[in-house]
Amino acid sequence: MKKGFTVHFSLIGLLNFKKLFFLIVGLALSTAGFPQLLKVNFQDPKTVPPTGWVRDYGQAYGLRTGSYQGNQRTYGWKKRSDNSLLNLSVGGSTPGNGRNRKMPSDPLQATLIHMQADDIAGTFDGTKAEGYWEAKLTKGIYDVVVSAGDAGVYSFPEKHTLNVEGVQAIKDFVPTGAAGSSTRFKSATVRVAVTDGNLTINADGGVNTKINSVRIVPYSTGPFTYWSANEQQLSVQKTSSATTKTFSLDLSNSSNKSVQYTLSATYGTGASGWLSFNRTHSGTEPNVTINYTATQNLPLGTYKATVYAAAAGFTAGSVTVKVTVSAPRPYVISSTPANKATNVSVNTSSIAANNLFVPTVAGYKGGVDNSTITSSTVKLLKVVGTSTTQIQGVVQGTGGGDAISFSPTFALEPNATYKFVITDGVKSYSKASFIPYTATFTTGAALESRDPISVEFTKVAIPGTQKKKYSSLVIGPDSKFYALRLDGAIERFTINRTTGMLGNQSVISTALSGKYGSRAAVGLVFDPASTASNLIAYVSHCSGKLEGAPAFDGKISKLTGANLTTERLLVTNLPRSTKDHLVNSLAFGPDKALYISQGSNSSMGAYDGSWQRTESLLSGSILRLDLVKLGSATLDAKTTTNQSVINAASGTSAKMSDGTYNPYSSASPLTIYASGVRNAYDLVWHSNGQLYSPANGSAAGGNTPASLSGTRRPDGSKYSGPSIPATSGVQVQNDWLFRIKKGGYYGHPNPLRGEYVANRGYKDNSKYASTVVADPNYRGAAFNFNLNRSPNGAIEYKSNAFNGALKGKILVCRFSGGGDIIVLKPGSVVKGSTDGQYNITDNYTGAGTNGLVGMSGFINPLDLVEDPQTGNLYVIEFNWNNIPDRTSQITLLRVSNISDADGYASAYPQKISATEVVGVSNILNSVQNLTSPLLAGTAKKDKKEKEDKGKGKGKDKDDDDDDDDQDNGKGDDGNNDDDDLLDFSRVTRHAVTISNTGRGNLMLKNLEITGPNASEFKILDQPNVNPNKPIKIRKNSSITFNVAFYPKSIGLKHAKLEAVNNKKKKGQFVSVDLVGLGITYEGIDSVLGGLLDSATNIVVDVTKPLLNPDKLKLNVYPNPNEVGSKIYFDLAGFNANEPVTLNLYDSFGQLYQAKTIQVDEQGRSSAEMPVSTTMNPGIYILRATGAAGQKESRIILK
């Protein structure tokens, strides 16, 4: 036969007649034993395939004898789980898994077969199984064209993936566009070697994949070489210290002869030469080792190469090698409470991953990308048996990107098990996903509530302050209220002393941003000489960049005039960090000098990968500005890094020898008052004469400097102490309240100042030798806040409110750990006491079972101020992570009468919305896949392990024994490609929190679901509540449990969860509205508002009134937009975790695209939708629909 074919081929070269050419080729291809052209349409049983195509409607693998199935062809389906025969042509009304959507007109696209019907939740009209397709072929090399997609638009998830003989032809294709449009299909061509007599197509890695057609074209015309795999997909982590990376494949030929093979490689775009191998191999089936170590030095991205094996008399076979170079993955080293910790206090206010490893990647900022820290990626779960309940609280990062924390809104439950979860949805700035992390701990016994001091505030939001980023609050000499915004603007209010409310809001344009550009302003203080008719204020400000900012752009400006519009620059070129360690707060001392809190540049004194800047001479200190010495000049405070110049600093000249600023001379207006204060947000000159300052300690991972003898210290001496070695990866440090003394050192090293030991030496840094103790000048702390509290704004309370219970005490905002105000009691509040008496002797928190009423539950409290006339407090709630159901604002804490010692019940959330598939009853066990970013209902359904059928699987011989090459599904950015897919296969648990916000204990006596569809909702992990044995919920505490929705039919369902509090006087009812939406696949889908008819176009009434449009937000940008680009949209105001379907219609109501996404715990989400080039310019409507309601936006496409 081979000889005969050669004759025919020679004739082709001699003849130029078109008809005869095709005749001869046709004869050759039909010759027995030679590879033949095969074109298969996948469809329902009734459709007639196009001319020249055979049909497949789901029959099991075997000889095809039916009409439109060719002559003596063998092909069909096998079960993916065990390779047994699978008949997909039975079951349901079609029957089977084949479909004809009747659009578009081309049957090759209108028809399909469900390959992964087992991905479809609920009932399916066909056979619910996953299959793969095989066709019997002669051994050879083939070009295979496959097509996947679905003309119909459905809300159920789908990501189409097709693999041909181990080669990934189509990956994660998601159809877009109108029903039947070309953008709903994707085709691809791959060249593969068939060596076992069967060509195999599977959908491994896909979700609900549907195949349309396959076209198999012979390529080889004789003997050929081939590899044991058609494709190798590998991943490596970029590193400067590469480890050996290899894989091995067997090399064979169709004649099974011993031959000499010559290898060569071609490379795709981006890079070349990154593979190495021996060029020649001999034998029947030699094993070839290919080295790809060099890829670890390539820029981040995906690279492709093709390796050919040539042999005399054989067509060269090839293997495609794809290598994805990703950033090294960050991970959590440890957290507090520690994993497996027991007897943890129920009043624990911060659960934090404060020891992180985030690799430094050239060209990227260091640390955690705080925008990826959300309530979907960081969770605290209560574990009961095999189920979990998500705890209500606030998640946040840090300005340095060096910690990830969770602050529970209420005290934890006693004797309970909790799991702290960080998913791979948290990423570094290089887009590398964190290795998932969990830590489990158990709480101790309950703590009975008590009132340490009798105070009570009522919280009231100040209108007009929402969604603004304020940084400092001050009561002016005119008795008006001043609020500095981070952007440098100042808002002024009058104060109603009766109600405490603010009014007559006006914005003072300080000209800071207009003169200096975007600002990050923190400090605002009025001069003691300022009066109501002569306002004099001072503002500290830096450039508005909080990432990659310049090293010396800190400034202090003086503002004067009735509206503070006259600006004079006092100091320029103060240091600042790359991030949010800035020129912080300002305070006038009793000596009328201006004191400045200057943030550090680094984590712990030496350069580190997160902060990426060394210290400067003035950073990490408390500075003192003598306004008399300054006079009318503008001081340039830029300092040198030349140590020899610093060591030779003059004692009389304000300039160093190189012309930079010298803070050490008697002529210098700006001097270092105290050093080693890492990052103190605020300063409090107390009436007892002491200067107090709360400071943020470093998260883990920082580096400390090595000592250098002879370095000048702030007191003028030269360092001559013990040799202090540099350390790296230091443990997390405590947050402290310092009592600042002139000339003191407070623990943050700065090698330019000859200060090397971090805090108390070995006691705080186990990387030191045990002999390393604190610097001789270290002054210690007045109070230990412990870890991860982020103490910021602070004041001395001066009012006699509450019979003087708070007078003289220091109030500090705990920004992250606690989200409350802590009250600190100095040992003495008057001048003249012995020095040691001024430290803190007692403290009272706002959070916890003994919390002070009205002083907890804030969203990142940053700063506060007291109105001394009334004792009322005003607090900045900063809302660091912009949680949608909370808002940044100024909150009034109104002095209130002490209420009765009763509990008071509150329920969260106010409404639960659930979308579930009719008939699905399996519960999403949230102990499983705890580290999935789609925990609680959004994870892709877990697939069964796919068996390796031995078709071209290469042997991985990585010498370093790591798992770099096992990160299947990770792309360039390390994302899980299925993160945006909904999981309707399991019913989602929805957490409910019943909390006690009163003064006394709450006795919960009843818990039930009522309403017209109560039977379709169920309480899970229900606490044992009944009138005869009520549950005690202590002050500032809560209980949590879950509610799930089990729809019995399609459509909207309504019910109510009710809780009854057994109060002394009368029962108190709190409730949670329950709204469910039952849906089915290929049926009536209430999300889309109409019948999803597979045989017709989908037309909906876009003029139908929307549900609850006012409470929902849908922001679309850019708008107008260009055809062929992308629409980006932000959602907010929906209910926690509910699926929301986005439908894009034209002005006639024709549906072009549908995409269902899952909002997070705060009802928000952001996503994108491509604008197909097939769409015409005009007006379109994007409608967001969920159980919470509907919102739409008009879009203009140009």
UniProtKB/TrEMBL annotation:
<feature type="region of interest" description="Disordered">
    <location>
        <begin position="938"/>
        <end position="981"/>
    </location>
</feature>
<dbReference type="InterPro" id="IPR026444">
    <property type="entry name" value="Secre_tail"/>
</dbReference>
<feature type="compositionally biased region" description="Basic and acidic residues">
    <location>
        <begin position="939"/>
        <end position="957"/>
    </location>
</feature>
<protein>
    <submittedName>
        <fullName>PQQ-dependent sugar dehydrogenase</fullName>
    </submittedName>
</protein>
<feature type="domain" description="SbsA Ig-like">
    <location>
        <begin position="329"/>
        <end position="443"/>
    </location>
</feature>
<keyword id="KW-0732">Signal</keyword>
<dbReference type="InterPro" id="IPR011042">
    <property type="entry name" value="6-blade_b-propeller_TolB-like"/>
</dbReference>
<dbReference type="InterPro" id="IPR032812">
    <property type="entry name" value="SbsA_Ig"/>
</dbReference>
<feature type="region of interest" description="Disordered">
    <location>
        <begin position="695"/>
        <end position="726"/>
    </location>
</feature>
<dbReference type="Pfam" id="PF13205">
    <property type="entry name" value="Big_5"/>
</dbReference>
<dbReference type="InterPro" id="IPR013783">
    <property type="entry name" value="Ig-like_fold"/>
</dbReference>
<dbReference type="InterPro" id="IPR008979">
    <property type="entry name" value="Galactose-bd-like_sf"/>
</dbReference>
<dbReference type="InterPro" id="IPR011041">
    <property type="entry name" value="Quinoprot_gluc/sorb_DH_b-prop"/>
</dbReference>
